[in-house]
Write a structure and sequence with these properties.
- This protein has one domain: Ribokinase (UDP-N-acetylmuramoyl-L-alanine:D-glutamate ligase, 3-Layer(aba) Sandwich), CATH 3.40.1190.
- The protein has helices spanning 28-36, 55-63, 127-135, 149-154, 156-163, 173-180, 185-193, 234-249, 254-272, 285-298, and strands at residues 3-6, 10-16, 19-26, 43-50, 66-67, 71-74, 80-86, 93-99, 119-122, 142-146, 168-172, 199-203, 209-213, 217-220.
- Strand 2 and strand 3 form a beta hairpin.
- It is 35% helix and 25% strand.
- The N and C termini lie far apart (39 Å).
- It has 10 helices and 14 strands.
- By secondary structure, it is an alpha/beta fold.
- Bound molecules: adenosine monophosphate.
- Adenosine monophosphate is lined by residues 8, 10, 12, 26-28, 82, 98, 124, 232-236.
């Protein structure tokens, strides 16, 4: 089934203890779309870039069969650039710069051919723009949405309006607490369920993710890796794997959502094993399913 992805498209410069990447393809929509492309089809991307956006980046997205009709190119503008530096504790990251460039005036226009998309993944953009995207779509089967502290702090009422329109919210624990204005993460997730979504996913970095619906609480671990090269985009790859799996299977039951959580964790684990998008390029179906089986073994126990 079709998956529409809206969000940032960027050129990232990233420093981690294991190396550096300069002007590498990044952005939330890119990570979501590339991860989702292993499961859903077609994947449709809506974003904006400048005339400096490299042709190799376009090639990479095309090589994953991502539909780029919705990628607006502002010829006389510059692509959004973001720089980040990770500490030896990879959970700690400093943003060195955020040059919004053409992204500052991003006004998502959904091409007519995208309006009937079945599954929608709203990347971390202004909640008002997230609503504008949904106004341009024709009753999707499922809307998954990301957000961040920036919007929780500055556009709380608009975010609440977005929450009424979506099905699944994916956030980290701090964001969940910020939205619910509640210290406990599980209580926060339950409180967010009362604001609109039918499921809340709380990401906990290397410690995995928590899935909460009205009828279930489920947790999946993070895949244990000995070497993480670049955590950038892990959350977005997670969202792409999660939504892509639901678009592929169309099973939106609690059990379907549980499996989607595992696919999210699997795609995120491939993402962080290499720099930028290298970990998400050229994956095979057997690599994906082998890691899903590893997940099953990781947390299976019996004898109770
Ligand atoms: P994550 O590691 O999940 O936070 O995602 C990192 C990606 O988000 C990078 O590829 C950045 O280009 C992109 N990014 C960083 N800051 C922003 C922002 N303010 N708005 C949208 N995307 C951003």
């Amino acid at each position: 089934m079709s998956l529409l992805v809206v969000g940032s498209v960027a050129l990232d410069t990233i420093d981690t203890p294991l190396g550096r990447a300069e002007n590498a393809l990044g952005g939330s929509a890119v990570y979501v779309a590339v991860a989702g492309s292993y499961l859903a089809a077609p994947v449709r991307l809506v974003g904006v870039v400048g005339g400096d956006f490299p042709s190799e980046a376009i090639e990479l997205l095309r090589s994953r069969s991502i539909d780029l009709e919705g990628l607006e190119i502002v010829r006389d503008g510059k692509t959004f650039r973001w720089g980040g530096k990770y500490h030896s504790d990879l959970n700690v990251r400093d943003t060195l710069y955020t040059d919004l460039n053409v992204f500052e005036h991003f006004d998502p226009k959904i091409p007519a051919a995208y309006r009937k998309s079945d599954y929608v993944c709203l990347g971390n953009i202004d909640p008002v723009l997230q609503q504008k995207v949904l106004q341009q779509t024709d009753s999707p089967k499922l809307v998954v949405c990301d957000t961040m502290n920036f919007w929780i702090d500055r556009k709380y009422q608009d975010l609440l309006n977005t929450l009424r329109l979506i099905d699944v919210l994916i956030v980290n624990d701090e964001e969940a607490r910020g939205i619910a204005r509640e210290a406990n993460v599980l209580k926060s997730a339950r409180c967010i369920l009362d604001m609109g979504p039918r499921a809340v996913v709380v990401k906990k970095g290397e410690h995995g993710a928590l899935l909460v619906t009205k009828t279930m609480v489920f947790t999946a671990p993070g895949y244990p890796l000995e070497e993480v090269h670049d955590p950038t985009g892990a959350g977005d790859a997670f969202a792409g794997g999660f939504t892509g799996y639901l678009a592929k299977t169309e099973n939106l039951s609690d059990d379907g959502l549980k499996r989607a959580l595992v696919y999210g964790s699997v795609l995120a684990s491939f993402c962080i094993e290499k720099f930028s998008l290298a970990g998400l390029e050229g994956l095979t179906e057997s690599q994906l399913s082998a890691r899903v089986k590893e997940f099953q073994k990781l947390s299976h126990f019996d004898g109770v």
